[in-house]
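Input/output pair, single chain:
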Amino acid sequence: MAAPRPNILRGPNVLRGIVRVALGRPEGIDQFADTRKGFLASLAPLIAFPLVGTFLLLLEGGGVPAVADLFATLAVLLAPPVLSFELARLWGRQARWLRFATAFNWCQWLLPVLASVLMTILGLLLRIGLSEHAATVMLVLGLGGYGLWLHWFLARHGLALSGFRAAMLVLTVNLGTALLVLAPRLLALQRT
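Output:
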């Protein structure tokens, strides 16, 4: 007699978690691991794509600008976990941080999917007369708004924060990340 097959719908499932979070269902966060291994697994593909891209640019003679862009991308990927951990620690939520950070990393894949859907819809609207400027504004506002909501939602429910503290986390993490990426570039511009 064959052993019973495990029911993959019972245990944690990243794809199921992403879909539930995308739909605003807080229990989706429970689908993500709260271990270091789970966090690193969520970070690995986010880092792998820029590394491969930089390698290909270097093969084509991209040089120093390609490496500089890689470091900027790494700052964008690594600053949010570091900054959010410090806020979680400050607010006594560090025990919940690993699951939050893992969910945050995996849910970043929602943004390119949303971008594709929005670009398809906007492409159809362009054909019936929507201006390119209006389409661009709608794309940026749609993606930006959803991205900020997603970050807030994950902070609110993943770290069990009040709505205000979740908003503070989103603001702090995004401004801190922007400073880490833009400050070196602005300093370099002043030297020239």
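The chain has one domain: 14-191. The first helix runs from residue 14 to 22.
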